[in-house]
Write a structure and sequence with these properties.
The chain is α/β, with parallel strands linked by helices. Among the domains are: 56 residues, no CATH class; 56 residues, no CATH class; 86 residues, Ubiquitin-like (UB roll) (Roll). It contains 8 helices and 18 strands. Strand 11, helix 3 and strand 12 form a beta-alpha-beta unit. The longest helix is centred in the middle third of the chain and has 14 residues.
Length: 403
């Protein structure tokens, strides 16, 4: 029998007396002699085994296999009130989804995980009420296929976890412009894909309604990279993002991320033709493509000054020290303190230092700071585990202490 069975038989479709099936196993099935094919029938009523024999599992059938004949009469309004439909692991194809969708006129949530779907055509007059679409674990989906669903008018949530998407792009919009694609998309999940270039993150800033993004377990975010740095870069690159990887982005975190971004790439900006004089500020196209929001950040915070762009010497402690004034708002008569603190010092350790100086329990202390560059604004230092540099505290800033 083995001589007549191809070596790549697993996964092949077969026809047995008019019944269609997919081969999932080829080999012995003790104690029965000979070699056997294990198949999953398209007709779930056919056969009496589920891939196991006498307690041994040789393969697993789909949990819920569905097959449709698109030659049948239109299923128009078959489920006229249906709003949520879960079709995970059913073997349904995208063509079958679109055909059946004629019977789901008010559907709002559709779950299609683990179906090996390829998005082969645009929904036409169907799925127009859809708000959530889950394509998780469909390895055939790539970035280009997303164009097929890009104009669903009410789509707010798109889940693309564990696919093989390597890039995202919206070619209808230029640098600094918003795309007409995915007009209502607010929540996007691209965890577990193959995204490795910052250009894809730049593209996400073109989505006009995007507020929440999850993008863990991609080459861009994994490896030996500092996760906090990656987070700050994403925040700086996507201007309207409010939630990243399920963590809210507070205004002070956005400000810190954008200021750090402005400094980090300041020398590159100058070499590319950037200048503090607006009339001379003409960075080349290569820089603008790599950093499409940089010019906006310069308008928001001012162009980086030469003093901010001096090469850092991280191994010399004196080059990491910040000279800060410290004001105790509870005791206006208290003399203003001046301290040099490492920029890597956590808020918790700053509180410990002040607790010893002021004889106040750490748990009672509340810290914030103000900067001459942001007059009239006070930034709360609310996360004890973050360093001063996380909040972009700089030389000359003032730490405000309350208890």
């Amino acid at each position: 029998m083995s001589d007549s069975v191809p070596s790549d038989v697993i996964g092949r479709r077969i026809d047995v007396n008019g019944e269609l099936a997919t081969v999932h196993y080829f080999g012995s099935v003790p104690p029965i002699t000979g070699l056997w094919l294990g198949v999953e029938w398209d007709n779930p009523q056919r056969g009496k085994h589920d891939g196991s024999h006498e307690g041994i599992v040789y393969f697993k059938c789909s949990e819920n296999k569905l097959k449709f004949s698109c030659d049948s009469p239109s299923p128009s309004c078959t489920f006229s009130a249906l709003k949520v439909l879960v079709l995970n692991r059913t073997g349904i194809t995208w063509t079958e989804v679109l055909w059946c969708a004629q019977g789901w006129p008010v559907l709002e949530e559709l779950y299609l995980a683990s179906n090996d779907i390829t998005i082969s055509e645009r929904p036409t007059d169907v799925l127009q009420t859809l708000k959530l679409l889950d394509f998780s674990n469909n390895h055939s989906i790539d970035g280009d296929q997303l164009f097929q669903i890009a104009y669903l008018p009410r789509l707010e949530q798109l889940i693309l976890s564990d696919n093989r998407i390597s890039s995202l792009h919206f070619p209808d919009a230029g640098i600094g412009c918003k795309t007409s694609m995915f007009p209502s998309l607010q929540y996007l999940v691209i965890n577990g894909n193959q995204i490795s270039q910052w250009s894809s993150i730049n593209e996400l800033d073109k989505l006009q309604s995007l507020q929440s993004l999850s993008c863990t377990q991609n080459p861009l975010t994994e490896g030996n990279k500092e996760l906090q740095t990656i987070r700050q870069l994403i925040i700086a690159k996507i201007g309207h993002l409010k939630i990243l990887n399920k963590c809210e982005i507070f205004p002070e975190e956005r400000r810190g991320a954008e200021l750090d971004y402005r400094k980090t790439f300041g020398n590159e900006w100058k070499k590319a033709g950037g200048h503090q004089d607006p009339d001379k500020n003409k960075p080349n196209n290569e820089f603008i493509i790599a950093h499409p929001r940089y010019q906006l950040l310069c308008l928001k915070y001012g162009a980086p000054e030469d003093g901010e762009l001096k090469p850092q010497q991280p191994f010399m402690l004196k080059n990491q020290l910040l000279t800060l004034t410290i004001k105790c708002l509870n005791q206006p008569d208290q003399k203003v303190l001046v301290k040099q603190l490492p920029e890597s010092m956590t808020i918790q350790k700053v509180k410990g230092l002040l607790s010893r100086l002021l004889k106040v329990p750490v748990s009672d202390l509340k810290l914030s700071y103000e900067s001459p560059k942001m007059e009239g604004r006070e930034i709360e230092l609310e996360n004890d585990q973050q360093p001063l540099q996380f909040y972009s505290v700089e030389n000359g800033d003032c730490i405000l202490v309350r208890w």
